[in-house]
Amino acid sequence: MTVLFIFAHPDDESFCGAGLACWCRERGHDVVLVCATRGDAGKAGRAEISGAPADLAAARARELQTAAGIIGIGDIELFDYRDQHLAEAGVDEIRARLVAAIRRTRADVVLTFDPNGFNLHVDHVAISRFTSEAIAASADDRWLPDTGPGHRVRRLLWISPLPPWEASRARDLASEPGIDFVLDISPWRERKAEALRAHRTQHDSIDRHFFSQPDVDRILSVETYRQAWGPPLGRRPSGDIFEGL
């Protein structure tokens, strides 16, 4: 099967799905990434580059390639929309590009942010909306026939509203609202840490949320997701994102 990550910025894939990517690859499934911006509005941190947007964008693109390689994502499509201005992108254009990506990869599962963007980031909110629209459009053969035959995604997953640094402390994840899948990613904890560290320009936020936490090992050992739609689950939370497919 194929899982398609659709995110807004370089580092979203490591923050939100590094363990899932490793989990999928271990089971022989493919993981593909679409990243809508190059993160040029972020901060350069302690990286040895200037703060110029073009330099930062180039650095973050390199970091993304490195991190993706660590967690087994070999197919990356990096768009060039303006960081923090994704909502202003031409709706028809970005939706068409996402439809083309979904049809090209024949994705069984798509992972993106929930409609609130996880943390209300404007780009996260925008990519969530664009993704939902593209999934619906991709199933309709009449829509953009030049991008290939229609394809129906079988499950849409959202990043759960409970951040990993809070999920690791919850005693009963099954009682938490918005959590349908809980993955034990402890076998790939070090690989997730390595992927996060590959985003050197973003060390401030990564250190704050992960490596400066006293229970960092636990934080790096669990990922949680919410089912936006898909086949019903036999039990909740499930430990298998392909359950019922």
Automatic annotation (TrEMBL):
GO terms for MF: hydrolase activity, acting on carbon-nitrogen (but not peptide) bonds, in linear amides
Gene3D superfamilies per record: LmbE-like
Matching InterPro entries: GlcNAc_PI_deacetylase-related, LmbE-like_dom_sf
Protein name (database record): PIG-L family deacetylase
Organism: uncultured bacterium 98
